[in-house]
Specification:
41% strand, single chain, mainly beta
Length: 106
């Protein structure tokens, strides 16, 4: 949205969350500072898998990690559509290799 490639209120294409999951490894409690990291793990024709990790304070290990999958659809028909080229270009810049895999997901 900040890049101006997605208008969730009026755009012809919207993302629907079709899957979500989270694993918790350590507690986080107020007033701890929390940092979040996000990456695109998989970029498909009409879907994107985002992975997120939460870190408490300056901890080197994540306190929680999960993912969610968006399928991009036509706002009116709710049928999957190819990712618009400007959106796909922004999402490609978010692809980061998984440290345990050593490669960029395809």
């Amino acid at each position: 949205m900040d890049a101006g490639v997605l208008d969730i209120h009026h755009g012809a294409v919207i993302g629907l969350v079709v899957e979500t999951q989270c694993n918790y490894f350590a507690p986080i409690a107020f007033p701890q500072a929390v940092s979040a990291g996000v990456r695109v793990a998989q970029l498909g024709r009409s879907s994107v898998r985002y992975e997120i990790a939460l870190y408490a304070d300056d901890a080197p290990e994540s306190a929680a990690a999960g993912h969610f999958i968006h399928v991009y659809v036509d706002r009116t028909t709710r049928r999957p559509v190819p990712l618009p080229a400007p959106l796909k270009a922004v999402l490609q810049s978010w692809i980061v290799p998984n440290a345990s895999e050593g490669t960029t997901p395809t």
